[in-house]
């Protein structure tokens, strides 16, 4: 009997440790690693092309185009390319009206962001390709600070820092903001110790010569940024390259977004697996800690809860039933609330559930190539 209790206790502890690993233990390990400094070089900054894809972003486009115009005034030689993925609103017309600022490439219909970025990369002339999203705004100094990091010949890619707007709009937005602040700190530590293990689409860049070939079904942000590491170059993060984006405020929008991203990320993981195995031991450790462990966080939570319930039943059945009842009440309250700590905990659980659903979706052979902008930004 005691052996079963010990086993269940061990399962609970291991599950809790796995959930906490990417956010507590992994950062502590990173802080113990030595700094790998960059080697500043000399000479003129490289030329650059800025690329973004859009679908039904007519609401965001006036502000985006004004931001691009500001960047163009500071960098007259900056090439700006946009791909419209068959928008049904005025997105393409708004971009086309600024033909002296942005070169518009239109797709035949819904073909996805990966396809669009490949189309743009072929037309790009800059030594450095800068990738961003249609709803993301860059600070005035972002391009200067980003290109300066390429003075080190070992740097093959540079990520920026994403700052979210609208944190107080809902519990979903608050949780998303907290998650991203943790993510940004992890990337800072990874960069300090060598390589960041993958970029998101808000703001990152690579040397054009390193741009890889890949199928339309993968997550292009992850695939393109990881190509830097596979080529033996450094993928680093610049704190002073700042991008700003509005948070998703509605749970439904955020759930669908996380399912889509997780499905494509796991599909991409399968595509990259042969190259991932050839990375250095430290980069494999980083990749597993920040990505694989997190992708299965929902499974760890479910396993831990089931083990804790089984253990409670063995120790005090009445207490176990009271605990389940209380948990269900708190869950119901959290689902009905738009703010507060209970709602935040529920949003965290929903995020884990969405990620796990996306991973299982990809494991079953399904993935997502197209996207729809969140209406609650």
UniProtKB/TrEMBL annotation:
Q: What molecular function terms (GO) are annotated for this protein?
A: glycosyltransferase activity
Question: What EC designation does it have?
Answer: 2.4.-.-
Q: Does the keyword Iron apply?
A: no
InterPro entries documented for this protein: Glyco_trans_2-like, Glycosyltransferase_2, Nucleotide-diphossugar_trans
Keywords in alphabetical order, please: Glycosyltransferase, Membrane, Transferase, Transmembrane, Transmembrane helix
Per UniProt, residues of the Glycosyltransferase 2-like domain are: 49-211
User: Can you tell which superkingdom this protein's organism belongs to?
Assistant: Bacteria
Membrane: is it a keyword of this entry? yes
Q: Where are the transmembrane segments?
A: 6-29, 292-312, 318-335, 342-360
Q: Which Pfam families match?
A: Glycos_transf_2 (PF00535)
UniProt protein name:
Glycosyltransferase
Q: Which organism is it from?
A: Sphingobium tyrosinilyticum
């Amino acid at each position: 009997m005691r052996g079963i209790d010990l086993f269940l206790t061990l399962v609970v502890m291991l599950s809790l440790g796995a959930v906490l690993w990417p956010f507590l233990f992994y950062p502590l390990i990173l802080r113990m690693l030595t700094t790998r400094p960059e080697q500043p070089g000399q000479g003129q900054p490289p030329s650059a092309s800025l690329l973004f894809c859009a679908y039904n972003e007519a609401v965001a486009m006036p502000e985006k185009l004004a931001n691009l115009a500001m960047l163009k005034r500071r960098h007259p030689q900056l090439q700006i390319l946009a791909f419209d993925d068959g928008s049904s609103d005025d997105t393409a017309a708004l971009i086309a009206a600024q033909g002296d600022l942005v070169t518009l490439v239109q797709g035949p219909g819904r073909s996805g962001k990966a396809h669009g970025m490949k189309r743009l990369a072929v037309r790009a002339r800059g030594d450095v390709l800068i990738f961003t999203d249609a709803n993301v705004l860059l600070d005035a100094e972002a391009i200067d600070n980003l290109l300066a990091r390429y003075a080190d010949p070992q740097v093959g890619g540079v990520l920026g820092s994403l700052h979210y707007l609208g944190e107080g709009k809902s519990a979903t937005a608050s949780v998303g903001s907290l998650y991203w602040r943790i993510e940004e700190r992890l990337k800072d530590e990874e960069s300090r110790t060598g390589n960041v293990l993958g970029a998101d689409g808000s703001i990152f860049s690579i040397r054009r010569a390193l741009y890889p070939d890949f199928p339309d079904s993968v997550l292009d942000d992850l695939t393109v940024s990881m190509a830097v590491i596979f080529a033996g170059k450094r993928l680093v993060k610049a704190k002073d390259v700042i991008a700003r984006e509005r948070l998703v405020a509605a749970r439904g929008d955020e759930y669908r977004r996380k399912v889509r991203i997780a499905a494509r990320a796991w599909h991409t993981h399968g595509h990259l697996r042969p190259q991932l195995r050839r990375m250095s031991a430290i980069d494999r450790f980083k990749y597993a800690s920040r990505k694989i462990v997190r992708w299965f966080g929902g499974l760890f939570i479910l396993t831990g809860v089931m083990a804790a319930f089984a253990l409670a039943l063995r120790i005090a059945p009445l207490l176990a039933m009271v605990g389940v009842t209380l948990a269900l009440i708190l869950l119901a309250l959290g689902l009905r609330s738009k703010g507060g700590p209970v709602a935040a905990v529920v949003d965290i659980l929903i995020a884990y559930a969405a990620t796990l659903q996306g991973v299982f979706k990809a494991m079953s052979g399904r993935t997502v190539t197209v996207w729809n902008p969140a209406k609650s930004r």
